[in-house]
Amino acid sequence: MRRFLKAAQSDKKLELISFFIIELCLVEYEMLKFPPSLLAAAAIFTAQCILSGSKQWSKTSERHSNYLEDHLLECSRLMVTFHQKAGTGKLTGVHRKYSTSKDGSMTIEPV
Fold it and tell me: What GO biological process term is on the record, naming one (predicted)?
């Protein structure tokens, strides 16, 4: 994940949202069908889409992850669904973790 974030030239905000999204997926049975590298790449891609409002997967990210944007779409759609439901349901620990700011920095709210 760190390598892919570096290739994406991430800032703290992108990094935080990417880790939030990937942690949401750790407790979802549906995500077991994806390899860990695809989950990491899709989390970064999804975070970029959330922040920019449009799809952004650079050639550098493609080269470092070995995933084209088309490979990430199914996984990314599931991640968006989990992100939207983050504050509701039975498993809200990840949402609570990222909703409370320990250092005065940004907090994350579902889209």
Answer: cell division
CA distance 82 to 92: 11
Do 79 and 21 form a contact (C-beta atoms < 8 A)?
yes
Q: Which of 47, 81, 79, 77 lies closest to 61, judged by CA? A: 47
Domain housing 67: 2-99
Q: What is the CATH number of the domain that holds 35?
A: 1.10.472.10
- pTM above 0.70? yes
Burial of 44 (0-12, 13-18, 19+ CB in 10 A): buried
Give dist(CA 90, CA 50) in Å, integer. 24
Q: Which helix (H) or strand (E) holds 87?
A: none
Which stretch of 31-35, 56-60, 61-65, 94-98 has the lowest confidence by average pLDDT?
94-98
DSSP state of 32: G
How many domains in the chain? 1
The Cα–Cα gap between 36 and 102 comes to 28
